[in-house]
Amino acid sequence: MTEKLKNIKERALFVAKSNGISYEDFCTIIGMSYGSFKGKAKERPLNSSAIENILTKFPNVDAQWLITGNGIMASEVIELNEPSSHYNVKGYKGTEIPLFRLNQDHTLEELLASPEKVLPETMLSIPSSSKCDAAVYLTTNTMYPMLKAGDIVTYKKISQWPSEIFWGETYLISVDISGSEQVVLHQVQISKNNAKSIKLVSYNPQYEDKEIDLDTVKAMAQVVFSIRF
Prior knowledge:
Order of helices and strands: HHHHEEHEEEEEEEE
Largest sheet: 10 strands, mixed
Radius of gyration: 19 Å
Strand content: 25-35%
Structural class: alpha+beta
Shape: globular
Helix content: 10-25%
């Protein structure tokens, strides 16, 4: 399908379509108007700022494919059909990844601390996948439209923060709110106000950015790649 895309703007719109985002919303995300992708304007080059925005806000998109059309759009945004077995996704060969569903019985903090004590819902086998610890279903829309509730994200646990944080990357975070766990999904940035805090940034404009004390963070894992059924 992608080989029929004649120019960079058609490939950019294909990124939007593949992520289930309307063209208008996609153009807003990358700082352009949809009119720039219509008619004769579609033949004009994509400006460098828009290219940077696409590669930053859709990190699984391959830069070479976007700019030249060579290769594939992304090797780590994976579309799967419904599993044919409760315990295995058949038809894939690769590293098996345990898939968990967070609930009141299994918090993110417990899952990251002792994953062997929690029974996974199924095992995912993903070809040529990046190294990760496990995967969970999302229950939040803080990063919509990049990620949405119902998507699956794979993650890699980190043990020391902020020293192991890659600023600007997306993380699953277990936060202690009045003695109970709240799991949040945000891009993590450096706080400019307090060295003992971090700034949580959402893509979804309905959610305000928020700073939290590092002392309230009980567990943290970096999102590696996403899976959408």
